[in-house]
Design brief:
The protein has five helices and four strands, in the order H-H-H-H-H-E-E-E-E. A hairpin with a 2-residue loop joins strand 1 and strand 2 (133-140). With 170 residues, the chain is an alpha+beta fold. The protein starts with a helix and ends with a strand. A four-stranded antiparallel sheet has the order 1-2-3-4. The protein has a domain at 15-49 and 94-168: Roll (Nuclear Transport Factor 2, Chain: A), CATH 3.10.450.
Length: 170
Amino acid sequence: MRKLLIGGVLALVLGCWLATPWLALHELRDAARAGDAERLNDMVDFSELRESVRLNLLERVARSDDGHAGSRARALGAAVAGALLGPMIDAVITPDAVASLLRSQRPQGAVWHATSAGQEQLRANSHYESLNRFVVSLRPAEGANDEDPIQLVFHRDGMFNWKLAELRLP
């Protein structure tokens, strides 16, 4: 009986531990809907989030090289793009933009394509990428399902807490 009780308690703790990213996502969405900037700031690591977007965009610039890796003009262009990305990302990756994504709406701005209908609804799918990384993929609710998703990546922060720390752009 004692082993069964211990096994039950361990299963309950493990279940709660595995459910924490969905609870964090729900709490983050509630903060976004309520416009609670303080709670949103506590649950989002904006410095890591901005850095992930910066690296994502730099990778795109490098891929658009079309095989001209030795070109000095392209290298200079990549360096200039890298220098300009920081201020641009700071202006675009804001609590309001993150709140829009968490409300399952496509934010308006330079990184995302604005739609003629305004705030297009997004469909969310989520999964563990590893024990310490949880991914929420956002796609348009209607239309092209083959469009690459915007991915919100949560990192474990301690035993039971999660922070939004990465944004993967399509």
